[in-house]
Amino acid sequence: MSEEDQDLTSAASERRQAFRIDMEKELIDMRWTDSHGRQQAKKIACLDFSRGGLKVDCDCDIETNTEVTVIFQASKPKSQQLVAKVLRSVKQDNGWYQVAMQLTDLA
To answer: Which of 85, 99, 106, 105 is nearest to 55 (CA)?
Structure first.
């Protein structure tokens, strides 16, 4: 591999690390209103978090375009709260849903 190719590979790897955090199934709190108008609240395993969105592992389906409030470290005084919109919810072989969301309240 040429030095230029190595530099490009290294830059791509660093860029990916800078934009994405492996949450390793860290529990986060989520709140949303379901299609029946009921308030839902769950602790959910976050699989992946990036500047633009996140992916979670959930025991229920969350409809596309649903607005979700995501709270990281809710028990701490300086918890981070973000708003996201569901892009897709895909049922997995184990019966759980992998839900991908786009952050909507970015500055």
So the answer is: 99
What token pair was written down for 84?
């996201």
Asked whether residue 55 is domain-assigned, the answer is yes
Give the structural domain span for 86: 21-103
Report the alpha-carbon distance of residue 50 to residue 30 in Å, rounded. 17
Asked whether 104 and 86 are in contact (CB, 8 A), the reply is no
Q: 69 versus 80: which is more confidently predicted?
A: 69
**Would the pTM count as exceeding 0.70?**
yes
CATH code for the domain in which residue 46 is found: 2.40.10.220
- The count of structural domains within the chain is 1
**Residue 25 falls inside a structural domain:** yes
DSSP code string of 28-90:
EEEEEE-TTS-EEEEEEEEEEEESSEEEEEESS---TT-EEEEEESTTSTT-EEEEEEEEEEE
**pLDDT of 26-55, one tens digit each?**
889 999 999 899 999 999 989 988 888 999
